[in-house]
């Protein structure tokens, strides 16, 4: 069942990724009526929230936009930074939503950030430990049990990411609407784009959970044997 679930989620993930890129391409062609660029919108939202120590910079790639709390930068991809489209407005405001979360000590973001150091170490060795555990399962379940525990940490991280992303989108949509950054029609497009972006995190979390269940079932099956 876990394998079937993984296949279904993999297919759903591919569909969501395709849909996200399609929506982003579509809304990137719709010019924002107020003519502001992604960079200008980001700077405006930061200023409105009294945030003066965060820089807005350009980063290479497509859909590589992110907020870095370590150096306090809003990193906008090339297709967002200078673009004056509905897609750029949605993405820029969303990433600034994370900056606002950081500035206001949003609880779930603090929890997520606190997990990062341990998760970095776990991710480095986890797959090797699981592989060794599978080979040694008939001898001892301990290595695989450790691997499953480490994978459970990454799964928990995936699910903690969900409210962080949803909240950033909520803040973004509320701000662009309140400040008149978008028209009613543009607001609907921005909301749709962010919805598909959020769904990528949902399927990633479900995929992680399905993989965890697969390894856990392997561990429990080996212990029964």
Automatic annotation (TrEMBL):
Regions that span the bilayer: 114-137, 144-164, 196-216
Superkingdom of origin organism: Bacteria
Presence of the UniProt keyword Transport in the record: no
Keywords: Membrane, Transmembrane, Transmembrane helix
Pfam family, one: Zn_peptidase_2
Database matches in PANTHER family: MEMBRANE PROTEASE YUGP-RELATED
Protein name from the UniProt record: Zinc metallopeptidase
Native source species: Adhaeribacter terreus
Organismal lineage: Bacteria, Pseudomonadati, Bacteroidota, Cytophagia, Cytophagales
